[in-house]
Design brief:
Elements lengths: L2 H9 L13 H7 L29 H4 L12 H4 L9 E2 L6 H11 L2 H8 L4 H9 L12 H14 L4 E2 L2 H5 L11 H16 L5 H4 L7 E9 L5 E8 L1 E5 L6 H8 L3 E3 L5 E3 L4 E3 L1 E9 L3 E7 L1 E4 L4 E4 L4 E4 L1 E3 L12 E11 L7 E7 L6 E5 L2 E4 L16 H5 L9 E4 L2 E8 L13 H41 L8 E5 H8 L8 E2 L18 E5 H11 L1 E2 L9 H29 L8 E4 H5 L1 H8 L13 E2 L2 E2 L6 H7 L23 E4 L1 H10 L14 H12 L1 H20 L1
Parallel strand pairs: 1-2, 5-10, 22-24
Antiparallel strand pairs: 3-4, 3-9, 6-9, 7-8, 10-20, 11-12, 13-19, 14-15, 15-16, 15-20, 16-17, 17-18, 21-23, 25-28, 26-27
Length: about 725
C-alpha cells in the first residue's frame, strides 16, 4: 500500500470501533492528522502529501544555502532582451499590425532602398547638430522618411532584441486593434513616401523612389481606323489576379492580355469622332530593380458584400525571366526571388502574417514571425507549416507538385524579386553619423535599463532569500497555534520563477465552509506566526485555523465507514448464500443485473456519496462484484431502474425471459430486502405476465410469414440498387 493510503487508513482506524455520536476533539484531530510526526530534511526524499506536517521537498532547497547574486531568477532573462550576435533585430507586434512589420522587413533588407533613404536629409541631422545627444528631451521623427530612417538605423545597429515600431505606425493613423488590407497599405506607403521625398530640394533625393518605380502604358487600338492611343503610367508593384491560375507566369500573361472593348464598353476614338470597337492591353516599358508582385488573394465577394480570401495554390520559381514581357528592353530583366510575404488564415479580416526574406549579403533565408527570427537551413526557402490551413483535407487535393527551384503556396500574398546581377556586390550600407548617434543614445538607455533592472531583481531576490530563510525555519507548527495553507500556494511561494499570488484555500472547503477531511492531502499545517506574515504580505483566504476542523464532516465520515463495513459483511454473506445449494423450489426471483450491482445500489439507497471504496473495476475492499462487467456498463443498465425492477415487463409483471433472472433463497432475499425495502417482491410461485405470453405466442405463429416477407425484401434489394 502506498504511504499516502497508509496514512489515510491510519487516520480513520479509530472509526471502526467508535460510534459517530461519541466522537471527541481527539478523534477529529486524528482524522485531520494534526499530530503526525513531521518529516526531517535529508531523510524524507520527497514531500509526503498524506502528512500535513511534512514540509520537506516543497521547493525550499534552493533557498536554504548561500546564493550568489548571479543565480537569482530573471538575471539571465535580461540577456533575452539583448540582441544576439549576427542576428536581426525583432519588431514588436502592436496587435493587428504585423502586416506592417512584414513590409518593414522586406524594405529594410532592400539594400538599395535603405542606402537611398540614408542619403535623404532630414531634421534629424539639424537636431543633432544643434542639440547633440545629451539633451533630456528625446528626438521624435516627424515625417515618414524620418521614421523610416530611424527605424532602419535601429534595425541595423541596435543592441535590443526587438524594437517598437509604434511611432512609424502612428504616422499612418492605423488602428492597432484592427487588421487592414496589407496590399492597400503597401500602395499607401509608397505613395506617401514619394510625396514626402518629392518636396526635397535636392533633385537626387526627389528621384529616390523613382529608382524603384517601373513604367507601362495602356495601349488602345481602334478597330475602325487603327489609331493607337497610349497612356503612360508608373507602378511600384504589379497586381496579379490569381483566380483560375496555377502558375505565376499565367498570372503575368493575363495581366498583359488584350481586352476587347465592345458594346456598352466601346472606346471613343478621337480620329473617328465616335465610339468604336477597340482592343486594349498593357505594354511594359521598363521594370524596376526590385519587382513587387501582389497576388490578389483578397477579393470582393459580391454575394456577401465583403472581402474573402482565395486559397488557391500558385506555383512560382526562384528565377523569373521578365524579358519576354517587356517591349522596350534597355537591359536584361532576369530576377531572383528575395522575399515571400505570407498570410496564415482563411479569412481576409483576420489571420497571421509571416515574412520569409533572403539576406542579400549572406544569401540565407530568414523567417520573421512576431519578434522572433529563424534562419532557414541550407540557404533555401522553406514554406513548411505556413501552408497549413484550417481545412487541410480540402487543400491537399489541389496542391501543386513543385520541382527543383520552384515553390507553390496558397497563403503567399506578395512575391518580391530582385534584379539578377552577374557580379554579386559585396557591399554594406553604413548608417549616417547623425543616425548612429541616435542609435548610440538609445543603446546607452538600453544598457542603463539593463543595469537598473538587474539591480532591482538582485535586490528582490536577496529580499526573497532572507524571507524564505527566516520563515521556513518558523514554518512547522508543533504544539503552538496553527493554520492550514494550500500546498500549491506554498510551492509557488518557493518557486523562483512564479510571482506570489494571494492565498486561495477555497478549493479545500466542504459544504459547511470548513476544511474538508478528504482535502488534507493538498494542505499543509503551518504556525500561526508565519500564517500572519503570509496574509499580511500576500492577502487571500479564507484563513483555516483550528476552528476550521469540520466535526460534521468527520461524523459523516465515521458513519460512512460503519455502513461500508456492514455492507462488506453483508456482501460476503449474500455471496455465500448464492453459492450454497438451494433446497426446494421456494425462493424469490431477483434480476441478474440487480445482483451484480446491488452494493452500488445499496450505497445510493443509503444516501452515501462516497465512491472511493467502490472502484470502477467492481471491487469493494477486495471483494469482486462481477468479473465480466465494468461499473460503467452496470451504470448504463441501471441508470433508470431501481433494484429488481430489471425483471419487470412493460406491464409491471414478471418478465417471461428466465435468462434475465435468478431464484435466490429466502435468507438471501431477506438480507437484500433490508437495503431495498421497496423493491418488487417476486416469489417463485409468481406467474409470468399473461399479456407478454400472448404476444410471444403470436410472434411464434407469425414467424414463417415474417421470414417470407424478409426473403422477398432481400430479393428486391439488388433491383433497387441497380435502378
Amino acid at each position: 500500500m502506498a504511504p499516502r493510503l497508509q496514512l489515510e487508513k491510519a487516520a480513520w482506524r479509530w472509526a471502526e470501533t467508535m460510534r459517530p455520536e461519541e466522537l471527541s476533539q481527539e478523534h477529529i484531530e486524528t482524522a485531520y492528522r494534526i499530530w503526525l510526526e513531521p518529516c526531517i530534511r535529508g531523510v524524507c526524499r520527497c514531500n509526503c502529501k498524506g502528512n500535513p506536517n511534512c514540509l520537506v521537498g516543497i521547493g525550499e532547497r534552493i533557498w536554504l544555502g548561500e546564493i550568489d547574486e548571479n543565480s537569482f531568477h530573471n538575471i539571465d532573462d535580461l540577456n533575452c532582451e539583448r540582441r544576439k550576435k549576427n542576428s536581426f533585430v525583432g519588431l514588436i507586434n502592436l496587435g493587428a499590425t504585423y502586416y506592417v512589420n512584414t513590409f518593414l522587413r522586406v524594405w529594410f533588407l532592400n539594400l538599395e532602398l535603405r542606402q537611398a533613404l540614408y542619403l535623404c536629409p532630414s531634421i534629424c541631422s539639424d537636431y543633432m547638430m544643434e542639440n547633440g545627444v545629451h539633451e533630456e528631451k528625446d528626438f521624435e521623427p516627424q515625417t515618414i522618411c524620418e521614421h523610416l530612417q530611424y527605424l532602419f538605423a535601429l534595425l541595423q545597429n541596435s543592441n535590443r532584441r526587438y524594437i517598437d515600431p509604434s511611432g512609424f505606425v502612428k504616422t499612418f493613423s492605423l488602428d492597432t486593434g484592427q487588421q487592414k488590407d496589407a496590399q492597400e497599405f503597401s500602395k499607401l506607403f509608397m505613395s506617401l513616401l514619394e510625396d514626402t521625398l518629392s518636396k526635397q530640394k535636392n533633385p537626387d533625393v526627389r528621384n529616390i523612389v523613382q529608382q524603384f518605380c517601373g513604367k507601362y502604358t495602356y495601349v488602345t487600338v481602334c478597330d475602325q481606323c487603327g489609331r493607337e492611343s497610349n497612356l503612360l503610367s508608373k507602378f511600384y508593384e504589379l497586381e496579379l489576379n490569381i483566380q483560375g491560375h496555377k502558375q505565376l507566369t499565367d498570372c503575368i500573361s493575363e495581366f498583359l492580355m488584350e481586352e476587347k472593348l465592345e458594346r456598352d464598353n466601346r472606346y471613343f476614338c478621337v480620329n473617328c469622332q465616335s465610339k468604336q470597337n477597340a482592343t486594349r492591353k498593357i505594354r511594359l516599358l521598363s521594370l524596376l530593380c526590385t519587382l513587387n508582385l501582389q497576388l490578389m488573394c483578397f477579393v470582393f465577394d459580391g454575394q456577401t458584400g465583403l472581402k474573402k480570401k482565395l486559397n488557391t495554390y500558385i506555383g512560382f520559381s526562384e528565377t523569373l525571366d521578365m524579358d519576354p514581357y517587356v517591349d522596350h528592353k534597355p537591359g536584361s530583366y532576369v530576377y531572383e526571388l528575395s522575399a515571400v510575404l505570407i498570410h496564415q488564415g482563411v479569412s481576409a479580416y483576420s489571420g497571421h502574417y509571416i515574412a520569409q526574406v533572403k539576406d542579400p549579403q549572406s544569401g540565407k533565408w530568414y523567417k520573421f514571425n512576431y519578434e522572433d527570427m529563424e534562419k532557414m537551413e541550407g540557404k533555401k526557402l522553406q514554406l513548411g507549416i505556413e501552408e497549413d490551413l484550417a481545412e487541410p483535407s480540402k487543400s491537399q487535393t489541389c496542391r501543386l507538385k513543385c520541382g527543383k527551384g520552384t515553390h507553390c503556396s496558397q497563403n503567399a500574398y506578395m512575391l518580391v524579386y530582385g534584379l539578377q546581377s552577374q557580379e554579386k556586390p559585396n557591399w554594406t550600407v553604413e548608417v549616417p553619423a547623425f543616425l548612429q548617434e541616435l542609435v548610440d543614445c538609445d543603446n546607452a538607455k538600453f544598457e542603463a535599463w539593463c543595469i537598473e533592472m538587474r539591480k532591482r531583481r538582485v535586490d528582490k531576490g536577496k529580499a526573497k532569500h532572507e524571507e524564505v530563510k527566516e520563515l521556513y525555519q518558523r514554518l512547522p507548527a508543533g504544539a503552538e497555534p496553527y493554520e492550514f495553507v494550500s500546498l500549491e500556494w506554498l510551492q509557488k511561494w518557493l518557486d523562483e520563477l512564479t510571482p506570489t499570488k494571494p492565498i486561495d484555500n477555497h478549493t479545500s472547503l466542504c459544504s459547511h465552509d470548513k476544511l474538508h477531511p478528504d482535502k488534507i492531502s493538498i494542505m499543509k499545517r503551518i504556525s500561526k506566526y508565519v500564517a500572519d506574515i503570509f496574509y499580511s504580505r500576500y492577502g487571500g483566504g479564507p484563513r483555516l485555523t483550528v476552528k476550521a476542523l469540520g466535526k460534521k464532516c468527520v461524523v459523516e465520515g465515521c458513519r460512512v465507514l460503519h455502513l461500508k463495513n456492514q455492507l462488506n459483511k453483508d456482501y460476503k454473506m449474500v455471496n455465500n448464500l448464492l453459492k450454497a445449494t438451494r433446497k426446494g423450489d421456494d425462493g424469490f426471483w431477483v434480476g441478474k443485473s440487480s445482483l451484480r450491482s446491488w452494493c452500488q445500489l445499496a450505497l445510493e439507497q443509503l444516501d452515501v456519496q462516497d465512491g472511493d471504496a467502490y472502484q470502477s473495476n467492481g471491487k469493494m475492499n477486495g471483494n469482486t462484484f462481477s468479473k465480466d462487467e465494468s461499473k460503467e456498463e452496470r451504470k448504463e443498465e441501471e441508470e433508470e431502474l431501481n433494484f429488481n425492477e430489471d425483471i419487470l415487463c412493460p406491464h409491471g409483471e414478471l418478465c417471461i425471459s428466465e435468462n434475465e433472472r435468478r431464484l435466490v433463497s429466502k435468507e438471501a432475499w431477506s438480507k437484500l430486502q433490508q437495503y431495498f425495502p421497496k423493491a418488487p417482491e417476486l416469489p417463485s410461485c409468481r406467474e409470468c405476465c399473461s399479456q407478454c405470453k400472448i404476444l410471444e405466442r403470436e410472434g411464434e405463429e407469425n414467424k414463417p410469414l415474417h421470414k417470407m416477407i424478409a426473403n422477398e425484401q432481400k430479393t428486391s434489394l439488388p433491383n433497387l440498387f441497380q435502378d
